[in-house]
Write a structure and sequence with these properties.
By secondary structure, the chain is α/β, with parallel strands linked by helices. Helices cover 39% and strands 17% of the residues. It contains 3 helices and 4 strands. The protein is globular, with a radius of gyration of 15 Å.
Length: 110
């Protein structure tokens, strides 16, 4: 399923599923970019959501603190902010990979 992908954008709700996908990708697919999310639950400020580069090809979006079990649960506005961080990071990766080649830019403009 992921063989043809250059970028894996993780969007699981269950922590164990997130960990399984990320660990698999890091161990078995080191050439893939991973953009994952952690920490978007509750009513905390959306300004605490950020994107952090953990390794050369692994980015984490979220506040890295909030947990569904410790808050009122997922709130759409914070989920949207986090998802936007992920989408923006994917676009940045595509843009960087496409430098010197218009192939990726043409794909985005279709």
């Amino acid at each position: 399923l992921l063989q043809g992908a250059d970028i894996i954008c993780e969007a699981f709700d269950v922590a164990e599923c997130k960990a399984m996908l990320i660990n698999l990708a890091l161990e078995k697919m080191p050439d893939k970019y991973i953009v994952a999310a952690s920490g978007m639950a509750g009513l905390g400020t959306a300004n605490s959501i950020h994107t952090r580069k953990l390794t050369k090809r692994f980015y984490l979006c979220g506040d890295e603190k909030s947990d569904v079990k410790d808050t009122i649960g997922l709130v759409a506005s914070r989920v949207c902010v986090c998802a936007s961080h992920q989408a923006h990071m994917v676009l940045r990766i595509i843009s960087e990979k496409g430098k010197g080649s218009n192939r990726f830019c043409r794909f985005l403009l279709r």
